[in-house]
Write a sequence for this structure.
């Protein structure tokens, strides 16, 4: 029988608590550390799709997660003067995807995942990193409600700071140390798959650590199995970046026109949403 390992997990967001949950149930002793002085909440809505929903179901959290799902019905594009360029009704997209996808606020998901494991593991909190001033400087001079938003962020209890980027590494581990989630393979919010990859990656990593005595070997097996799926999902962001975040006025006009047909494409499993749906189910969890 494999000896229990004491495993240090840095980060109490989505991947960290999920990994800790599965390691405890496989006989290991994880210690969860978070650099902020308390649970790092805040953030935007995130999506859980396909195989990642199966991870949530196996954790017994599906009802709690679905009960906390968002009810966003309209997506709007707004010009600097406050005028709305277009509105997209999201209900048809929700109806087309049914129970295959859950949109939930990041804060709600983090609290649910942390609550599922906090009584079973040692948790250590640390000190925060201040990023509010950088936000104020970078967004100075913008129109719409930007000044009010940056002012409010200075005292917001749920301030959340991140960047639109993608992480690509030649290896996810060295010896007995491995990276997981955004630190290893963040696909960027443009992919719509960062949360799902974190959930699936944590489940698979715990599976290999439980089945292989040597952590370094377990890391290699995990990466060999999971990397093709990660690369498939990362391609969603790189292919869609120029469309969703155009750099020219003509590109913005084209983007705005194409967004209007999203509900129709979703009904037929076409377009960017259809690609995400297929990529979200491109890996099978072991029993």
């Amino acid at each position: 029988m494999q000896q229990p390992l004491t495993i240090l997990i840095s980060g109490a967001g989505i991947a960290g608590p999920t990994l800790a949950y599965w390691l405890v149930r496989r006989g290991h002793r994880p210690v969860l550390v978070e650099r902020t002085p308390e649970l790092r909440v805040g953030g935007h809505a995130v999506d859980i799709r396909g195989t990642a929903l199966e991870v949530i179901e196996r954790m017994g959290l599906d009802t709690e997660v679905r009960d906390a799902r968002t009810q966003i019905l309209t997506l709007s594009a707004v010009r600097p003067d406050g005028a709305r360029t277009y509105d997209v009704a999201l209900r048809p997209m929700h109806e087309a995807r049914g129970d295959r996808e859950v949109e939930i606020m990041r804060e709600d998901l983090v609290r649910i995942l942390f609550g599922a494991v906090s009584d079973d593991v040692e948790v250590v909190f640390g000190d925060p990193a201040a990023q509010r001033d950088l936000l104020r400087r970078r967004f100075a001079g913008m129109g719409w409600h930007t000044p009010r938003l940056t002012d409010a962020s200075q005292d917001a209890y749920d301030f959340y700071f991140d960047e639109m980027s993608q992480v690509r590494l030649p290896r996810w581990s060295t010896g007995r140390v491995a990276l997981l989630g955004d630190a290893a393979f963040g696909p960027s919010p443009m992919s719509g798959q960062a949360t799902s990859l974190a959930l699936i990656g944590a489940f698979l990593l715990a599976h290999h650590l439980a089945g292989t005595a040597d952590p370094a070997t377990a890391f290699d097996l995990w990466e060999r199995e999971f990397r093709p799926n990660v690369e498939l999902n990362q391609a969603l962001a790189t292919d869609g970046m120029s469309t969703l975040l155009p750099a020219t006025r003509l590109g913005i006009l084209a983007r705005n026109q194409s967004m209007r047909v999203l509900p129709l494409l979703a009904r037929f499993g076409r377009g960017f949403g259809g690609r995400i749906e297929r990529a979200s189910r491109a890996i099978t969890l072991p029993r």
